[in-house]
Amino acid sequence: MWIPAFARMTKTAVLAAVLSAAPSNEKPDVEASKQETTKPPKEAKITFDPLNESAPEEIVLFQELAKRSKEINAREEALKQQALLLKAAESSMNEKLKYFDLLKQDLLKMLDKLKEKDEKQLEDLVKVYSVMKPKLAANILNLMDMPILKEIVKRMGKKKAALILAAMDAKKVKDLCQMLAKESQNIS
Length: 188
Known about the structure:
There is one protein chain. Helices cover about 80% and strands about 0% of the residues. The chain is rod-shaped. It starts with a helix and ends with a helix. By secondary structure, the protein is mainly alpha-helical. About 5% of the residues are buried. The protein has helices at about 5-10, 10-20, 30-40, 55-130, 135-140, 145-155, 160-165, 170-185. The protein is built from 8 helices and no strands. It has 3 domains: about 10-40, no CATH class; about 45-120; about 130-188, no CATH class.
């Protein structure tokens, strides 16, 4: 590998070359040149210390700004913590909403099954009372609560219902007819 001649020179050789090249009446300071060659040059650092180069009012202002900056940073950190808590709470609430939606769907399915079961039971009761003799059916229906009686009579055939109602207690039939009339008014 080829290295230029000046790069191969040692420090003392460089010093000797500098001394020999200098005019004879001027002798350079050997000690100074040795120090220059042995110490790396210092980089100039520009530092600004506001407390050393500022007026007292500016120092107070800098201190207040530093204090305000700390307060803002503390608030920012508190807001970040609150945001994290809110996200966690939101996530938890979303999970609970999904869970409650599933429960709601399950309950609606159960309710539909119960309605179907009640409808089937009512249809069975209607069939039973429809095949009974009117006077016997009237005696049993006189003892029933009005909402159930109303549903049974509504589902019966008109001829069979008329025969049973004719054999029932007059007050019970009157109350039943009023209830059916109110219901038909609410529908229309």
